[in-house]
Automatic annotation (TrEMBL):
GO terms for biological process: starch biosynthetic process. Keywords: Glycosyltransferase, Starch biosynthesis, Transferase. PANTHER family: GRANULE-BOUND STARCH SYNTHASE 1, CHLOROPLASTIC/AMYLOPLASTIC, GRANULE-BOUND STARCH SYNTHASE 1, CHLOROPLASTIC_AMYLOPLASTIC. Residues 2-63 form the Starch synthase catalytic domain. This is Granule-bound starch synthase. Pathway: Glycan biosynthesis; starch biosynthesis. Gene3D superfamilies: Glycogen Phosphorylase B. The keyword Glycosyltransferase applies. The gene is GBSSI-B. It comes from Heuchera parviflora. One of its GO terms (molecular function) is glycosyltransferase activity.
């Protein structure tokens, strides 16, 4: 599976509590788990589609 990043600004960040709405196995939870780089995270833990795509893909492409 190849994952292509066109614009890193659009990462698909959502509240971590919404993970169950994705209907994905629990084993993928850590791939989506994301805390932003601020000293005090903005609105706590999140899921991040881009992080999961990078971790779970076989190849990474950028444009």
């Amino acid at each position: 599976v190849a994952f292509c990043i066109h614009n890193i600004a659009y990462q698909g960040r959502f509240a971590f509590a919404d993970f169950s709405l994705l209907n994905l196995p629990e084993e993928f939870k850590s791939s989506f788990d994301f805390i932003d780089g601020y000293d005090k995270p903005v609105k706590g833990r999140k899921i991040n589609w881009m992080k999961a795509g990078i971790l779970e893909s076989d190849k990474l492409l950028t444009v």
